Amino acid sequence: MKHVELTTTAGKLAIPELDSEATSKLHLTWHWSAGSYRVTSSLLEHYHFVIDKHGKVRHGVPLELNISTRDKPRDPGYARHVLNANSNNIGIAAAAMGDAQEHLARQGEYGKWPMTQAQLAGMTEVAAQICAQYGIPVLPTRVLGHEEWDSIHGRPQDRWDVNCIPHLDLRPYLNSDGTYESTNYLRRQTAKRVAELHVNSDPGERARQLAVFREFVELHDAAYAAGLPVETIRVIKQLRQLPPFSTFTRQDLTTAGSTGNEDKPGADE
Ligand SMILES: [Zn+2]
Predict the structure, then answer these.
(1) Nearest to residue 93, comparing CAs of 133, 68, 61?
(2) Residues 152 and 101 in one domain
(3) Residues 51 and 134 grouped into a single domain
(4) 160 C-alpha to center of ligand 1: Å?
(5) How many A from CA of 159 to the centre of ligand 1?
(6) pLDDT digits over 155-213, tens only?
(7) How confident is the model over 84-105, as pLDDT tens digits?
C-alpha cells in the first residue's frame, strides 16, 4: 500500500493512501496509555500512533490493518484500542497517566505521569494532519476520546481517557451532549490546525473550497430571504463554519484569487 509522508511538528508521519470509501468511514480516537512515560513495545502493538513525553509521534500498528471496506476486510493484526469499535478507527495514545484515578482527577490530582503539554500538542497535531489528509470532519461523533465512545455512541468502555487535561487543570466534566470539556478543547485545537493546513494547500484546491463557501453563503442568504426557520439557517451556518470553509470570510468572495487566510471580522449578522 502506498503511503503519504508528512512532515509535522510531532515529527515524520507516514499514513496510507486510502480511497473515499475508506476515508468516509474513518473515526479517530484519543487515548492515554495509563502507564508511565515509557513508550513500550506493548503500547506500539495496541495503537497506531503513540505520543511520547516530548510530544513526538511513534508509529505502532499500521493503520491500514484496521481498514474494513467492501473490497478489503479488517486484518487479524489490527489494533484493538476501543471495545467493539475498531474497524476504521484510528488510535492515538499519549504514553502517560499511570496511577491516575478519575475521582482524584476531579480534585485536581493527576498522578505521577500526567499528560504533558507537549503530549497534548502532539495528540492534536497528529489528529489534525490525519483529519486534513483524509477529510475527516472534526466533530464529536468522528473525532473523540476513548470514553466518549460510551457517552456519545453508547458503547460501554469502562475507561476515562481522555477526560481531563492536567496542565490546564481541566477536570473530568461530562456535558449533556456526551462530550467532555477536555476533548472539546482537543477538538478545537485540532480544528484550528486543520484550517491552517488547508490554508497552506495548493491554490487550485483553495479556489474549489472558495466556490463551495460561496454556495453556502448564497444558500444562507436565500434561506434568510425566504424566511426559513432559524434552526435551518443555523445548520447551513454550521456547515459553512467547518474547516476548511471556516478559513474564508465574505470579503474573500469579492476579492477574486484571494488566499483568504487573513483574519477579518465576519461581515454577516
Ligand atoms: Zn483508551
Answers:
(1) 61
(2) yes
(3) yes
(4) 8
(5) 6
(6) 999 999 999 999 999 999 999 999 999 999 999 999 999 988 887 767 787 888 889 99
(7) 999 999 999 999 999 999 999 9
Other residues' Cβ atoms within 10 Å of the Cβ of residue 147 = 27
Residue 112 has pLDDT above 50, yes or no: yes
Q: Who surrounds ion ligand 1 at CB < 5 A?
A: 31, 146, 159, 161
User: Which of 171, 198, 225 is a domain's end point?
Assistant: 198
> Is there a single domain that holds both residue 186 and residue 215?
no
Q: How far is CA 105 from CA 109, 141, 149, 164, in A?
A: 5, 25, 20, 7
Q: What global pTM score does this model have?
A: 0.78
Between the CA of 145 and the centroid of ligand 1 the distance, in Å, is 8
Kindly give the distance from the C-alpha atom of residue 171 to the centroid of ligand 1, in angstroms, as a whole number. 17
Cα 244–Cα 247–Cα 248 angle in degrees, nearest 5:
110
In the chain, the number of structural domains is: 2
Query: Do 175 and 133 reside in the same domain of the chain?
Result: yes
**Could you tell me the distance, in angstroms and rounded to a whole number, from the CA of residue 118 to the centre of ligand 1?**
19
Expressed as residue numbers, the domain containing 180 is: 3-198
